[in-house]
Design goal:
80% of the residues lie in helices and 0% in strands. The protein is mainly alpha-helical. The two termini are 20 Å apart.
Length: 202
């Protein structure tokens, strides 16, 4: 069951990691950008932050899952470190960008706060993980990287929760507001349970 869940996580991560490519092949009016006002779309800073967020967020999602397999980490130490540095750099760019674009989120102040909180927690957990590994604390580093990737994985859970809630409630607006929180809070709870189980097993 554990291996099956990991495989499912990997598949979702790879598929959603490639999501930014949709903006190359699909007209922007038929994407998420179609829901934004002309004023926001003409804001160069917002548009730059948006593309930085989805591109580097996609990269972090695409490569991050590989780091959680112990056999891989132990066998390819240098590659693990290289991917880790690349992941951290991608998260730093994407999280900071997400904090900015979160202030313009659809759904008003409630969804904005949800997405901004996600960006801040994503940034902090990743930086704390880096601090711990520089101090040689591997256990804490791994725990905070689990939290970090739980935030990264919000890109996947958002796209699962939203259509489900929308189909149940027939209310896209309020569904999106709820998803601004549901896409990451349960993820962090799962991350906490994973870390707690690992601590007990260790």
């Amino acid at each position: 069951m554990k291996k099956l869940l990991f495989v499912i996580l990997c598949i979702f991560a790879l598929l959603m990691g490639a999501y930014p490519l949709i903006y190359v092949f699909v007209e922007h009016k038929n994407t998420f950008l179609g829901s934004k006002s002309l004023e926001i779309l003409q804001n160069t800073i917002w548009k730059t932050a948006f593309f930085a967020h989805i591109i580097f967020g996609g990269i972090s999602l695409f490569i991050g899952w590989r780091q959680f397999e112990s056999k891989f980490r132990n066998k390819y130490v240098k590659l693990h470190k290289f991917i880790g540095k690349f992941y951290v750099a991608a998260v730093l760019i994407s999280s900071v960008s997400s904090i900015y674009i979160g202030m313009y989120a659809n759904g008003g102040i409630v969804s904005s706060v949800g997405f901004v909180c996600l960006g801040i927690i994503w940034l902090i957990t990743t930086l704390v993980a880096v601090v711990y590994i520089t101090k040689g604390n591997v256990v804490k580093h791994q725990q905070f990287m689990v939290y970090s990737y739980a935030c990264t994985f919000a890109a996947v859970t958002l796209r699962i929760w939203f259509p489900v809630l929308k189909s149940i409630t027939q209310d896209p607006g309020n569904s999106y507001i709820a998803v601004a929180w549901l896409c990451w809070l349960p993820n962090l709870l799962v991350a906490y349970l994973i870390n707690k189980k690992s601590a007990v097993a260790g």
